Structure formats: structure tokens, C-alpha cells
Amino acid sequence: MEIIKEKVLQELKDTGFSILPKYWDSKKCIQAKQELLQVPLDMFEVGQGGDLRFQHANKYIASANSFLKDSFILEVAQSYSDCNVPNRIVAGIVEHKDGKVIDSGGSWHVDSEKEHQFKSFMYLSDVGPKNGPFTIIQKSKELANKVSKYSNLRILQDTIDEMVDSKDIIEITGSAGTLILADSTYIHRGKQIEDGIRYAYTTYFY
Question: For residue range 77-99, what is the model confidence (pLDDT) as tens digits?
Fold first, then answer.
């Protein structure tokens, strides 16, 4: 795992993200999704993008707690950034609804303007281009420090259109079990969902 860890760290430094397909097997993802669907709806809150979010899922769901304590992810976090203490798992449901604009995160943004902010994501369902994939602008650290931001570190789409080459906008698709490690000081968003439902866990580090 040391070789993989070094590869991940280099990718984080080079582009702002690293992808590990099939990190969880399908059985584990199915179990996690079943656990998530047993949570009463009134325990969810609505996020900025209209998605549903279950805060501190690790306190209630075994698979979420397992993700929070994953030793490899913790090693990467500790090696990459001072932002390496896992605070909580947010279980997210992003569901397409006709006539509504829904995504995870609510438009382009950065999570902070610190040197690094580490985050990990686990897809619990298959995520294609129409299922609201996590989307990041690679190598956008320098740009993130320059662009104008409005409420809660959001960035206008017009700014992205003007200043970003489309080839640098990376939509991260993958089957259930895909692990994404990212530096959320790079410009990113959840793409607007066009079809189906996306289930995911996100670890917030501080």
C-alpha cells in the first residue's frame, strides 16, 4: 500500500485529486446503501444544492463509521495536510426531479482558502455523467486564490467560463465503490444531476 500511497500523494499535489476504483466491493456498497435507506427522512437536512444530507452518519451507520476510520485514507490525510483529523461522515442523496436544479454542493466553490483541505468521497452507487458526479478543475489551486468569490466561497459560472479551459474540468464518474481523495481548496462542485439517484459518503477533515 506504500507504493499506492505515494502515487496518491503525488496525484493530489499535481492535480488536486486521486481516484481509486473498486476500493469497496459491490457487496459492501449494497450493505451501506441499505443502511442509509433505513435512516428516517427527518434526520436529513437539505444542502445548498437541494440534495439530502445526513450529518454525522458515522454515529448511526456501521459502514459510515468504517469509512471514517479507514486506515489508508487516514495515512494519506496525515501525509498530505495538517487538515487530517476526521470529524464526521456526511451521507448524501442526490436525486433527479423533473423541473428542479439539484446538485451536491451548490455550484462551483472552494471549501476554504487555507493551504490544503483534505476530503474523501465514496460512491455507494454507480455514477455516470448524468448522475451528478463530483467535478473538479484540475490544477486550479493558483486560480482559486485569484478569482472573485461571493457568499460561502462560491464562484460564478461566468467566471469559470471565462478563465478555465474546458479540458481541465474533470467529471469523476465510476462504479459503486469508487474512492475519491481530493484537496477541496481546488475549485470543485457536484455536477447537476440529470437522471437517477446518487448515493455517497463524504468525510470532512479538520
Answer: 999 999 999 999 999 999 999 99
